[in-house]
Amino acid sequence: MSVHDFWTPFALEPFLNALIVGLSIASIWLVAALGLTIIYGTMGVINMAHGEFIMLGAYSTYVLQSYLGFPFLLCLPAAFFIVAGFGWVIEKVLIRHLYQRPLDTLLATWGVSLVLIQGVRLVFGGEPQYVGVPTWLDSAMQIGFINLAWLRVFIIVVSGLMVLLTWWILFRTVTGVRIRAVMQNKEMAASFGINANQVYSITFAYGAGVAGVAGALFGAFKSLFPDMGSGYIVEAFLVVVVGGGQLIGSVFSAGLMGEMGSVFSYFTNDTFARFVLFTLIVVFLRFRPQGLISEAMTRR
Amino acid sequence: MMLELQDVTSFYGKTPILQNVDLSVPEGSCFCVLGKNGVGKTTLMRTIMGLTTRITGKLSIAGQDATSQPTYERAIAGVGYIPQGRGILGKFTVRENIQLGTFASNDAAHGVPPLCLELFPYLAENLDKRAGHLSGGQQQQLAIARALATDPKVLLLDEPTEGIQPNIVKEIELTLRRLNKEIGLTLILTEQHIKVARELSDYFAVLENGRVVETGPIAALTDELVERHLTI
Fold it and tell me: Is the CB of A192 less than 8 angstroms away from the CB of B75?
């Protein structure tokens, strides 16, 4: 293999296309990481079952569509409520009792993830399942030299809307004031009439619901396997850790990581791009372990 | 009685910090808890607020049994808390900090109560300033405003004059007197300054090693008692 085979020279139009693909990758990582950002950023819970919440969202969509005939667009909010309800139960019966013990939470949620994978495998079998999409999402957008599947455009739009909705809830509603108060100081929040347990329930359920929506989107994008969640959990955690656990941080880190990955793979190839990207992340975290947007910065 | 503790023992983990405390605070009075550092004054406040691990005995707020009530329900029941160190949420604006208080009141609109603005003109002019940027005295005013926003029956003030410039101490004292005498709020405060305690209070209790060793009307707080229990 010569250097020329390995290195693709720069050309404007394909390069711009790579940037747009990067945006699409970023939006996928962002929507996968959004629920995790909420749960980790506000509650400090490391939820190892996050990938399986995504998987549940995908299978909910599959069941609603194949057995009950739901249209795809209706499956998105439905997946939100189904997985949010599931998350609410998990918080009540398990996570609630482990708030003071982060390591135990990590192990317990990992256990939940194993149970979910095997449970879904028992019910639906190990073979892949598919979610159908409306025909208007099934073609590609063609504007000049830009070529992007409509489904990818749809994911960009939905992830943008989810971020806006989450921002609005956190910073523009009374519920958001309650959540942020508990985040800053649980004792003080309780001393002023806030039921912190209820806030945790709602927050966890919301984060789970967002993962459900991500699952519904990914189900349309790729085939469904019981262990499909493990394919998203690594990137989701990287986005959250590099971002610093804040909503705005996750937006930036997903954007940066998606674009960098796409640009690297344009010049070289996918495997090498991932290698470079992950190495850069390790180096970045060595020098800035608090992530892009840290607590101290938002305190300003 | 606005607040009553009967044989209350309060624990952090398995360690009892307060032991066999009996206190009665009449409605509309100002009750001062005295004692040297580390005798359990702050723990007494936290016990009333339900922030210790557990308690034995009986605690009632405004005639209602509150022994096993969670913290947030006590706040709703009418206890306004001004903690030691003030407990201001630094990332919130002044307005959001006051708004936090309204979660324990009946105000569904969660607005800033007019009384807070009237008592503290500086806060009224800086509602959108980040609370972390306020000075110590301003934060203390904010802590009082936040507690008032809960529409309380009784205010718990843990060292309200600690670490504050002397001229602001006088101001806070006047505010507290007004809340107690004009508005009729019951006050429970811990205080290091005997002078402030004597000027404000109707009743006192002295703590030593987590137990109440002296209690009575403020007139009974003789120099001899101060000498024996409070002089270092």
Answer: yes
